[in-house]
Amino acid sequence: MSAEQPAAAAPSPADPHQPTHSYTPNQGYDRDTVPPEVRMHRGAPADPSPNDENEEDDYDDIFDGNESAEEWDPESGDLTKNYNRQRGMNAPRSNTQKPSANTFASVDDQVSALSKHAAKIRLDDVKQGEDREKDKADRATSDQVLDQRTRMILLQMINRGVVSEVHGAISTGKEANVYGAVSHDDQGEAIQRAIKVYKTSILVFKDRERYITGEHRFKGGFDKGNNRKMVKLWAEKEYRNLRRIYSAGIPSPEPLSLKLHVLAMSFLGDRKGWAYPRLRDATIEDQDEWRMLYIQLLGLMRKMFQVCRLVHADLSEYNILYHKQTLYIIDVSQSVEPDHPRSLEFLRMDIKNVGDFFRRKGVDTLTDRMIYDFITAADLPTDEPAMGEALEKLYESRPDEGDEDAMQVDNEVFRNQYIPQTLEQVYDVEKDGQKLEKGGGKDLVYSNLLADSVVDKGQDEGQKQEDDSAEGTESDDGAALDSDDSDFDDSTSRPRGKRFEDKDEKKQHKQAVKEAKREKRKEKMPKHLKKKIVSSTSRKKK
Ligand SMILES: Nc1ncnc2c1ncn2[C@@H]1O[C@H](COP(=O)(O)OP(=O)(O)OP(=O)(O)O)[C@@H](O)[C@H]1O
Ligand SMILES: [Mg+2]
């Protein structure tokens, strides 16, 4: 106040009495009682971190709602709630109050309440496989991803009982870090968990746009300028995709809880917290096992496509974990639905990655085209052992059995083939279907999807029975499975129509069905109706 006042005089009994705390309008009381590791600041600079540049260090979205996954998607909120209820993941919460009248003070209270858990985040306790040990610099960077907001979310998860402790990084990457965590069951038994924390740095997430644009589930698009929102969207995508995959019975982490950019899931590893190796790092000597895993993986890809309606879109030996002859699918944040304009392109890429890897391991692989047809064919089984058997039949049906040169040529052709990017393009091609049929038709990589699963199914449900009997026969309109596919016994999953013993009879029947369908197509249905059918068919879950 006055300039004469001594700066730091020794305390004297005559000094005016100082309040124990100070009050700043709109900021509430000072928070010196809150340990620094959980202290939040409105206005005050946060710890410098490359990951939270331009981020206002506030926690409103963390405490707002306070309901984990329930708040992130109003449209599918019910589903998530149900899921969480079923999983019993909504542990008793001690801080359910919502910020209302005095928002800041209320958030502050919640922060203070969480501070008691601060010691349960111990990131120096690092658990990484030897071959994946990162150097110190890397680790330092990784630790910084735990900015104040992330720390707050983790504390909140601890408070809610999702986990009881968070440990060091299992993996530190460009886009996300995965941390080990522990939770305790009713008997006090430790259960390992994994927590994936998405990084919010702008550059890394730039190319993610192509996965989201065109996703009907993300119709609202995303705000490229807002990093935080984008990363949140990304975590949501992984959560939702994992839920589908896990509930379809595909080996994968079980998604447990989601808050903004932090996703808690079950841990794929041993009880001591060692994660299963990536397929890339798995030590498998037995050649037969490699082949078995290859067949297993093709089945998982098919199931993911047909049952979960998802294309992984980043599938490789890096995003598959291995344990005891079982493959686990992870890292599904970029996975898209079949109606995504680039889904088929992504699928083709996945197939290539998988094929290349297993070929390097010495496995006699099928051509990319055969795998593509196997995955997209509507009329094959979606469960084991039937899927594996179907693949064995494919092996038997190969015309140039294992001829590597022929396969290479076929793969090259297939990989360079035109894949439509939009529905409009698909329909234009479909109009020309008759022309293409005469020879080029089987090169239509999307024919499985278009002719069978989309257009015909949608046209008239009343005729479904008739169409069913022709399932698999339409396939020679395009690049579908060899017509022998009707020999597959998938009676367990879906009743098939008429079965054919005689090849000629089969051929005749196919011809007739083809004619009938051609006629049917002439009575073209309005585009908007088709589009509607396309999206409803592709969203359909079994
Ligand atoms: N549920 C889990 N259980 C055990 N380990 C896991 C789990 N999820 C991920 N991991 C480990 O973390 C690693 C990285 O996970 P993931 O592939 O999901 O992240 P990412 O998106 O690829 O991250 P980045 O691209 O930044 O490397 C995996 O290779 C795996 O070793
Ligand atoms: Mg990965």
Give, in order, the helices and strands.
EEHHHHHEEEHHEEHEEHHHHHHHHHH
Average pLDDT score: 71
CATH topology value of the largest domain:
Transferase(Phosphotransferase), domain 1
Percent in helix:
25-40%
Strand neighbour order, sheet with most strands: 3-4-5-7-6
Oligomeric state as shown: single chain
- What is the global morphology? globular
Indicate the low-confidence ranges by residue numbers. 1-9, 31-56, 66-100, 133-137, 140-144, 451-501, 537-542
Looking at this structure, what is the CATH superfamily of the largest domain?
Transferase(Phosphotransferase) domain 1
Structural class: alpha+beta
**For the report, how would you describe the main beta sheet?**
5 strands, antiparallel
Small-molecule binders: adenosine-5'-triphosphate, magnesium ion
CATH architecture of the largest domain: Orthogonal Bundle
Our count of domains comes out at 2
Number of helices: 18
Q: Tell me the radius of gyration.
A: 28 Å
> Under the CATH scheme, which class of the largest domain?
Mainly Alpha
Strand content: 5-15%
* β-strand number: 9
N-to-C CA distance: 74 Å
